[in-house]
Design goal:
Strand content: 15-25%
Helix content: 40-55%
CATH architecture of the largest domain: 3-Layer(aba) Sandwich
Radius of gyration: 33 Å
Number of strands: 23
Strand order of the largest sheet: 10-9-8-11-12-13-18-23-22
Oligomer: single chain
């Protein structure tokens, strides 16, 4: 019968549980008050005044609204903590003071000070005891929930304590304690949970079945963050992180905001602060257009551009859904930050001459960031006509309209795959660079054409990071093309920030190259992601592991190693992470002849002939040959 009653109460909704607590308090208050009077007068209390009995229901009528207002019934019983106890003590004190004041004002009875003190102490004690006893009986613990993910919070500061409050109210989590490197915090109790030093954690992890460690130190430097992650990444525990400190401070944090660790943190790259003088140069009070505005790079360009106060931002995107998504996001940013930037949404392709003519006739575009491109290597390799039409001839058409409309600045987003390419996609981006270099070489060219070349960006569509995450979620295996394959990586926001700064330094015809740091072995990245997920690698040495890594072989046109420079002729710019490559290019009339031949070849749609034609004028291109 007791078990049935317990199950019945546990299954009730939170609202019904609160009603039960309200009814229990309504019963406790008059009984406690009567006993306090009886104890004071050492006999059963019998009021002398005719209206004296009114003080008992009055105490209840005063106390319950105060308890409701101060949140006594918002606390989740399963996660009842010391903070809830302090709230009860404060609420009962306030209700006692108000009750005494009203009784005296209405002359209902004489309230001795000893009765008021006893009433406050007894009421607060009994209400606390009822919560603790109910918690112990219903959930089997006076302090910790035994259900949900068992987590430790790394960081016992402001962010950690705010996260602990959020976790307390979520039955999917069970907080076991805090970890902190500050020796002064060791052994302290925060919101009912103990703080352990990082040196104690190895023993703790051996004794406890820990599901997650949540890093709650959003304001620490990247180096310290990386040291902490390196120390923890080999533990069979999921590592996650809280959002930015601004979200925490605004009180918006919820358990749904706890996110996976940024892979950028594990790659050991140091983010360099931007040169603030360069960022607004081509944007502030100007009409700026972003092509491919809904893509990974294009959308981040839009986010950063809008914060730099352009006069107008034009979004050009051929995907209706992608355009809708970035439009909605930017509208939210504008409303939230009270910005007055006009945003024009243009649905269409850079290969559409009618659209471009109408667009440039109506809009006084001053700066173009050209991010519209097909970039997926195997797909473009299998569909060379579509890839070349968009990436080369779309760029040529857009550049010509920009030149005719006296656009001030045109920045092409290029790629490391354009250097000695082995695939059609890389070839198309190198030819796009050649097109802009040829335009810039013309006499009386009033548009500053430049290119920014960089490697892979973390988390972009088609990149390995989201692919590996999905494969881990599905239980593996993770597929890597080759044990030795390496890539350069950079976060999308950092890459875009550097693109904007590079464009501001352009004089015309430059190929800017972003310093991507050291290249990373893809298999090492896969191993780190498996560890981050709290899983182990399944291989010959560990046949009972969780996730296997399989090698699928290089895909069509794929390189083992990417490069950022064609030659050695490179110079430093005013920004320490941006270099200028001084590379040979093809004069415009000669390039036009090559492009005309390429277009004729594309009419036949023969992939092998298209590759041969590209090899005629793209320096270092070695077409992929199917075995």
């Amino acid at each position: 019968m007791t078990r049935n009653l317990k199950n019945t109460l546990q299954s009730k909704s939170r609202a019904k549980k609160r009603l039960i607590l309200v009814a229990l308090d309504a019963l406790i208050i008059p009984i406690v008050l009567f006993l306090c009077f009886s104890l004071r007068f050492q006999e059963l209390y019998n009021p002398t005044e005719s209206n004296g009995w009114l003080i008992f229901p009055l105490a209840t009528l005063i106390a319950l609204p105060i308890f409701l207002k101060l949140g006594l019934y918002r606390a989740v019983l399963q996660h009842f903590r010391s903070q809830s106890i302090l709230t009860i003590i404060g609420a009962t004190l306030l209700s006692t003071v108000v009750w005494v004041g009203i009784v005296n004002l209405l002359h209902l009875a004489e309230i001795p000070a000893s009765v008021a003190l006893l009433y406050w102490l007894a009421t607060s004690t009994l209400i606390i005891l009822t919560r603790l006893i109910a918690q112990s009986w219903l959930y089997g613990s006076l302090s910790k929930s035994t259900t949900g993910k068992k987590v430790f919070i790394y960081g016992a500061g402001l962010a950690g304590s705010q996260l602990a409050k959020v976790i307390e109210s979520d039955p999917e989590y069970s907080l076991l304690g805090f970890i902190d490197d500050d020796p002064n915090l060791k052994g302290m109790n925060i919101l009912g949970s103990k703080v352990y030093s990082s040196l104690q954690f190895d023993k703790l992890s051996d004794k406890n079945s820990i599901d997650e460690i949540i890093l709650a130190m959003p304001s620490i430097g990247r180096k310290k963050r990386q040291r902490i992650l390196k120390r923890l990444e080999n533990l069979p525990i999921v590592l996650r992180s809280v959002p930015s400190f601004s979200d925490l401070a605004s009180g918006k944090l919820s358990t749904s905001d706890i996110k996976e660790i940024d892979i950028d943190d594990l790659l050991g790259r140091q983010v360099i602060k931007p040169d603030e003088s360069l960022l607004p140069a081509n944007i502030k009070d100007k009409t700026v257009m972003v092509t491919g505005a809904g893509g990974s790079i294009g959308s981040e360009l839009c986010r950063q551009i809008i914060s730099l106060s352009p006069k107008k931002l034009i979004l050009l995107e051929q995907s209706e859904f992608a355009l809708y998504q970035i439009e909605q996001e930017l509208e939210e940013v504008l409303d939230k930050n009270n910005l007055s930037v006009k945003v024009d949404k243009i649905l269409g392709s850079i290969t559409n001459p009618i659209l471009l003519k109408r667009l440039f006739n109506k809009k006084s575009v001053q700066t173009i960031y050209h991010a519209a491109a097909y970039k997926h290597v195997p797909l473009v390799e299998g569909n060379p006509v579509a890839g070349l039409s968009n990436n080369i001839f779309g760029t040529q058409l857009l550049a010509q309209h920009a030149l005719d409309a006296n656009v001030e600045t045109f920045i092409l987003i290029s790629t490391d795959k354009a250097v000695r390419p082995t695939n059609v996609m890389g070839c198309s981006k190198r030819v796009a660079e050649l097109v802009l270099q040829a335009f810039a070489d013309q006499k009386n060219c009033n548009t500053t054409f430049s290119m920014v070349r960089f490697g892979n960006v973390l988390g972009s569509s088609g990149s390995v990071v989201p692919k590996f995450r999905q494969q881990i979620k599905e239980g593996g295996p993770i597929t890597v093309t080759d044990k030795e394959i390496t890539r350069f990586f950079m976060s999308i926001p950092e890459a875009v920030q550097l693109v904007i700064q590079a464009g501001a330094m352009a004089k015309g015809g430059e190929v800017f190259v972003l310093d991507m740091g050291e290249s990373v072995k893809i298999v090492d990245l896969a191993k780190k992601m498996i560890s981050l997920a709290g899983l182990s690698i399944k291989d010959i040495q560990n046949p009972d592991g969780d996730i296997e890594i399989k090698y699928s072989g290089l895909r069509p046109g794929e390189k083992l190693y990417e490069e950022l420079l064609i030659g050695d002729n490179v110079s430093q710019t005013q920004h320490e992470r941006i270099m200028q490559a001084n590379e040979a290019f093809i004069e415009k009339s000669k390039l036009s002849m090559h492009l005309e031949k390429l277009q004729l070849t594309m009419l036949n749609s023969d992939a092998a002939d298209i590759r041969k034609e590209l090899a005629q004028f793209v320096d270092g291109y070695k077409p992929w040959v199917e075995n």
